[in-house]
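Kindly draft a polypeptide, keeping tokens residue-aligned:

***
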Amino acid sequence: MTSLTQGFTTSDAATAIILLSRGAAYANGATELTVLADRLHATLTEQGRPPLLVQPAFVDRSQPALPEALDLCAKAQTIIIVPVMVPDEPSLRRWLHKLIMRWWAHQMQSMEGAHCPRVVFAEPLLHTPYLADVLARTVEDALTQPDVPAVVGDDRWENDPAGWSVVPEHQHHVLWCVGPRCAAKGSVQLWPQLVKTIRDTPGLKNSVIPLQTSCQFPCNHGPLMIVYPAGAWYGPVAESDIERVLTQHVLQGRVDEDLCVHGPQA
């Protein structure tokens, strides 16, 4: 995903806005946030705002993660982070503040104080004062829409696809953490490499199912990967580790002792 500069570079942007959301398992979640960022940029431009940047970002499951988005906005004078996820989790928000402070301190050090933008974290979405007005307008608009039976039409809604009842053949689950802290350490960017490795490696394709998970808790070891049924926890897993660790574990029955932080060591 790229930033929505709408003809401006980050050096032109006096203000950068990061729309921050939770990620989703479905691809359209990232698309919808991008569309929202585009609409917000158009609205602010129509209001005569100075050159600005509107950048989507995700806490987990999708990319770019917040540190990447901050990097893309680093040349702006002010960065406003607008959370558009519900519900608000105070502990997560507090951790995001600490993540921002780590980024800000690194920026100060790398730029030797020459430029470090002001970073503001907006109120959680459900706390915003005008949300009730927006929802009231949405209710009014909904009354003009067709009923659900008319939308569904002739679709066979009472029968799920038969394939959803078939358990796939496999011997191993690979649980890949895309929770907030692992996502900030690059786990979301590594997910395609994990899937490609399983798909392209003989012996792994038909015996291993990769699954994304939310936080697995020992975040200091992230990016974190657990392989079952053995129950071996690996981390931090880099791109160069994925093929070697999975091949050794699944095909050779050997645990990478350097990366195994919990579970069987042999």
Q: What stands out?
A: Residues 1-9 have pLDDT under 50 and may be disordered. Strands lie at 15-21, 52-58, 78-83, 118-121, 172-177, 208-213, 225-228, 232-234, 260-262. Residues 194 and 242 are 6 Å apart (CA to CA).
